[in-house]
Amino acid sequence: MSLAFADRDLYYGDPYFSPAEPIQGLLSKDYAKERAKLLNRERNDPTVGPGDPYPFQGQTNPYHTLLEKWHTRPTATPPSTPKPTQDTVRPVSQLSMPGASDDDFKRAFYAGTTSVEAADEEGWVVSVTPSGGWVPAVIAGRTGVGLSQRAQSFVTDPSENPFNVIEPGKRPRVTLTPTLALKDGKPFLAFAVQGGDSQDQNLLQFFLNVVEFGMNVQEAAEAPNINSFQMRSSFGEHESRPGRILLAESMPPWVRSELRRMGYELTFEERTSGPINAIQFDRAHGTMWGGSSNHGEDYGLAW
What we know:
alpha+beta; Glutamine Phosphoribosylpyrophosphate, subunit 1, domain 1
């Protein structure tokens, strides 16, 4: 995941604005194979950076200098945050600001995003992740509508990401990942989750739990996930926390020891499943299966 997020941090932006992202190269299976060769199964690499997808679409990378200078961004540690012990159990946020705790930011962060999956008997399927108007937000006049805070995901320095520099009319790179998975050209799964930079991570693990490990949607929605904080955060000061991962408290001691040996800093929560909402379509029996994780205030309704 660190390799994929490093590519995101440099190359993702609004495709309707120049410069053009190397989309063909990023989606190339040959490029994915080259990146996979960098996987270290023995140690975490805190210096992992973006790759070069341009040759995989027949071009030369115009940003070689940025690749050579790439680095992780230091974390601005809140002065009120105690140094964690090996088995510290406390909520983790990718946002940090002097004088504020991780707990404060987690409450503010999760309060502003939700996910909705809907389907009907006629075959219409919708997956949406409304977000961006959380407190504190600028309210549009007396409408009560909070303006999106997603502009903080832009950068102002092209050396950080030349594709995601703020300008009028441009959409910021966002973390929102409402997803529809098709099988034989028909809807197979509709799924989404809230949670900032954890969205892609949690949804990938959910999808693999269904497709590769045979879980039903409810089992997959409740299954513990692992979250990494090594990427550059999409919020705040865009800091990164190399090697820091979030695990469920149920993680056995031998796994914890092995991860520490590999150079990871471990943090824990009781539940790390999402919160994910999903619908699975069983074409063989003409039924729909709904799942909502037990992570937050998530529900499934059918009629």
